[in-house]
Amino acid sequence: NAQAAIPKLEALHQQNPDQPAVTRMLADLLSGAGEADKAEPLYQQLLAGDPKDPNLLTAAAENFLHERKWTLAVQTFQESLHIEPAQADAWSGLAFAASENGQYTLVLTALDQRARYLSDGPATLFLRASALDRLHRGREAIPFYRKFLSEAQDHYPTEQREAWQRLNALRQ
């Protein structure tokens, strides 16, 4: 249980504040437990000691996603991917952060890069369709909305409603 482990790791971290492995475990646990605001300074401490670790940069960027700090997430994912481009999860995170930040061309670039490592699923199909749509490329968006709807299987009700609305609007 993550909630039970957090106090133990916090105590261990207080005893060993300069131990990166303990700090990283605590940061990851806090971030995953919905306490991204507490994890952020730990990631910053770790990055100060190892600013070129792509896995650490990606973890910090994912934490920024939890905090809804889209611009910082985009920048941090880009730093990580500059060092190590073969990170499908980082490309996914970058696409999501860029979408939330209104950077739709970057969304498409990130999804194209991600597609080199993983096939599209419902979430990435919707991201691609909505990015194309927001870039006024509706004709290109339509097949991605359709494919999203065929694969979503009621797991994304909000996005499915939006996809149906956009398809109806684009048909007119």
Helix content: over 70%
Mind summarizing the main beta sheet? none
* Series of secondary-structure elements, N-terminal to C-terminal: HHHHHHHHHH
Number of helices: 10
- What is Rg? 19 Å
Structural class computed from helices and strand pairing? mainly alpha
What is the residue-mean pLDDT, rounded to a whole number? 95
- Which runs of at least 5 residues are low in confidence (pLDDT < 50)? none
Terminal Cα separation, in Å?
52 Å
State the total count of DSSP E strands: 0
Strand content: under 5%
Notes on the structure:
It is a single chain. The chain has 172 residues and is an all-alpha fold. 78% of the residues lie in helices and 0% in strands. It contains ten helices and no strands. Helix 9 runs antiparallel to helix 10. The chain is elongated, with a radius of gyration of 19 Å. 35% of the residues are buried. The model has no long low-confidence stretch (mean pLDDT 95).
Strand-helix topology:
Blueprint: H1 2-15, H2 20-32, H3 36-49, H4 54-66, H5 70-83, H6 88-100, H7 104-114, H8 122-134, H9 138-152, H10 157-171
Helix pairs in contact: 1-2, 2-3, 2-4, 3-4, 4-5, 5-6, 6-7, 7-8, 8-9, 9-10
Give me some keywords for this one.
172 residues; mainly alpha; 10 helices; 0% strand
